[in-house]
Recover the amino acids of this structure.
């Protein structure tokens, strides 16, 4: 057992009838890390998060959570909290009553359980006495997060926590998760939003049809990735295009839909792109903007999952 790992999974397989939801999955998540699960619909993300929360047991493989092996009992391991498929709430109770009821279920006194503190953390103080029935999706997500925080988890497991959050709500929730991670809590979350994952996670695991196609630091994903498309804005578009065409390893992308005459789109590995930039500057052409057309995570996600779909 590795004390630094909040999650250690080896050879996890989970089937629902003929459907193989998870197929020989290995996963290491270090304590204090925010780890993202990403994958197309039906890739197995929720199934995996459900195993971490003790909502289901694997058919085979070994799972250790916070250093302890997980048995075949349906129960959340000590120190684990979170939700999949949206938080479970009592619609007729207020936000505060929901949290007090959860605290009472765990045998804690609602007055000292920290209800007001977690409501404040997720930004729901103003609506603490409103019934959950009237809450928007984003507010329900925040209340679910508050419920999880009430247990002071060491592993927080969240399925699509940004669903329904407006930009301010998202920023608020990101702040909460970052603070938790800084204090040593491990967060494992799924998302279809690459910008969320890039903003929050140090590491990601990409699942496709139940199999892990990548797991590791985001930076490694970018570095390992094939050629990416970049958009360049220069002081001399025509001359820049000619120079790019002559540079080894640079492929012009002539996409009519994206071409606006001013901007140049090229496909390249980073060393070839570096060479192009040096050559532009040497030729007296100013580079005003240089950005990937899609983020490295998005590009790698598409490439890796398309590859996997091809294998099926
Ligand atoms: N309780 C269940 N009974 C039958 N099949 C299930 C069950 N739960 C999941 N599956 C199947 O297992 C596979 C993985 O589903 P899962 O919900 O884990 O994927 P996901 O990556 O979370 O997808 P999404 O992004 O759409 O939420 C899918 O084919 C799904 O239909």
């Amino acid at each position: 057992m590795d004390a630094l790992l909040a999650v250690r999974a080896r050879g996890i397989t989970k089937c629902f009838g003929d459907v193989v939801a998870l197929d020989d999955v290995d996963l290491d998540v270090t304590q204090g890390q925010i780890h993202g699960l990403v994958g197309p619909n039906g890739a197995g993300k929720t199934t995996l998060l459900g195993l971490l929360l003790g909502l289901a047991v694997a058919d085979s493989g070994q799972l250790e959570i916070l250093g302890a092996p997980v048995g075949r009992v349906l129960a959340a391991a000590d120190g684990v909290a979170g939700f999949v498929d949206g938080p479970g709430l009592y619609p007729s109770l207020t936000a505060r009553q929901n949290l007090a009821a959860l605290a009472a279920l765990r045998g804690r006194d609602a007055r000292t359980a920290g209800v007001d503190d977690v409501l404040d953390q997720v930004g729901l103080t103003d609506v603490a006495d409103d019934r959950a029935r009237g809450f928007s999706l984003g507010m329900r997500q925040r209340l679910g997060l508050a419920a999880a925080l009430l247990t002071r988890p060491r592993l927080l497991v969240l399925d699509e926590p940004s669903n329904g959050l407006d930009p301010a709500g998202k920023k608020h929730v990101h702040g909460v998760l970052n603070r938790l991670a800084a204090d040593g809590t491990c967060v494992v979350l799924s998302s279809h939003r690459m910008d969320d994952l890039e903003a929050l996670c140090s590491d990601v695991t990409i699942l496709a049809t139940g199999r892990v196609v990548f797991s590791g630091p985001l930076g490694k994903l970018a570095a390992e990735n094939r050629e990416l498309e970049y958009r360049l804005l220069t002081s001399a578009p025509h001359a820049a295009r000619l120079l790019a065409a002559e540079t080894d390893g640079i492929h012009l992308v002539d996409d009519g839909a994206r071409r606006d005459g001013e901007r140049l789109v090229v496909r390249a590995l980073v060393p070839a792109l570096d060479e192009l930039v040096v050559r532009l500057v040497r030729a007296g052409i100013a580079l005003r903007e240089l950005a990937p057309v899609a983020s490295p995570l998005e590009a790698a996600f598409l490439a890796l999952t398309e590859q996997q779909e091809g294998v099926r």
